[in-house]
Here is the input.
Amino acid sequence: MIALSGDALLARNFHSMIHDIALLQSLGIRIVLVHGARPQINHRLRLSELNSTFVQNIRVTDPASMQCVKEAIGSTRFAIESELSMGLPDSPMHGSHIRVVGGNFITAKPYGVEEGIDFQRAGHIRRVDTTAINQQLSHGALVLISPIGFSPTGEAFNLSFQDIATHVAISLQAEKLIFISQASAIKDGEKILRSLSLPQLAELQETTKDSEHADLLGAASYACHGGVQRVHLVGYEQDGALLSELFTREGSGTLIMKQCAEIIRSANIEDVGGILNLIAPLEERSVLVKRSRELLENEISQFRVVVHPEGLIIGCAALYPTTNEVDGELACVAIHEEFHAQGIGARLLNQIEQDARNIGMSQLLVMTTKAAHWFLEKGFSEANIRDLPENKQSMYNYQRNARIFRKAI
Here is the structure.
């Protein structure tokens, strides 16, 4: 399920965006594409010298404005179908044939009067014809749905493309709902929020002051609570953002999951590549001691990893026995920089401590050059070289000058 905002359709890379969607369709992925048309409607209204007002981010749509809505949606839909029909030899879609199907899949009803305001031809979704949509999908068609619905009496109503996307995704029990509806992914300052749990999403909804942004977050929340397992919020400015979000572990946008809990488990040999990718930037900055692939393969049984629901290894730590059998050494603690400040490191430490207790250890030792304050916050106290087991004392790297901490467990 993919939802394109009207702004996304006006973006400079609209052509490549549609071609990426066509590529997904050619791979056998069933796609329902919902499009918006707010800026296109605004343009038609200006040409007709009509004004329109918004209440609670809903356009009050009188009959004259509704005519502009129909014209804008019709021309927008035509542009999308035109792009999806492209198959010239020099185009990215050479040789493709995508069948685009639309129809009266959405039954609507009037929004009505609220707080004395008559929204006129603005509407709500009453029913989604999932049988008809599934029938077209089973025949290999791409289903294109515009932000307009019809009542049993034949009236047309102006609808929110976000509402349509969420209702259709829930009705179809879609595996994914992808919103391509803002310039970039959700950010905290300059940092992209790669994943959000539902509680984090709720907190973000409370703090945002942008009404359109709030609508997007509300739609994502509604979809997840309605049973959609994954909602992706992808920006439209970056070329290839959609494919990057779907086919790379890091992604390009923000993933919201109904069940967004990382798994902490013992590492296995298949995790070696992921751990190396995770720790390589820290090794380059001398935060961690460099480990070769061969060494990591030999020591993999000592590691715990944190696995994101999408399969990316976002954390690791190792527990090594020492010669006195009482102390354990905590080493190679790393959390992916995109997932800092989410409590992952603390949960991983708790697991390591439990592992150490289970095998009879009573104290953890750790050496660090950068994370001294974090370990102090987690109950460690500073120690010195003499507190290390003899084998660790002889191996201590004075040039690296790491600080030593210990914690009774």
Notes: The longest strand covers residues 313-321.
